[in-house]
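Q: Got a minute? One more chain.
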Amino acid sequence: MVKKLIILRHGNYNSSGLTGDGMRQIRSVSPKIAEEIGNSQDACIISSTAIRAKQSADILSKILGIPYVENGKLHTEGGDLELDQSEEMLRIIDSCPNAYLIFVSHHEAAKYFPAILGKKKLQCFFSVFSIEKGEAKVIDCEALKEKVIR
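A: Always. Here it is, folded:
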């Protein structure tokens, strides 16, 4: 199983993608994500197909030196995390050979998925709370702890 799951919420954006502020947000949090994974190359980055998420994943990928792949199921449309989306995220975790997994996604995934993961896979409780754009939730799947990095 994955040692740590990190859910990075994309940076600030407008209709054409990340704003300058959004790019700065991702550049700022990326070294902190590197610290969380111990600068390990044993990590996988999976991004939503939304432009803002792909741009965020691209910045993170270059800083970490780890390529990313896209997954359309990580693109939420607002509101709740749909059942098929959470099932896909659980499937990815189950099949991930890496010690560290980073999802670059949206508000709904960052808010709701840790609680789903805790209940369905880790038999623990994680809070349901929002994070700001450009922040990340870190789920330590071994210590059963969560935190936010900015």
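A: Residues 20-36 form the longest helix (17 residues).
Q: Perfect, thanks.
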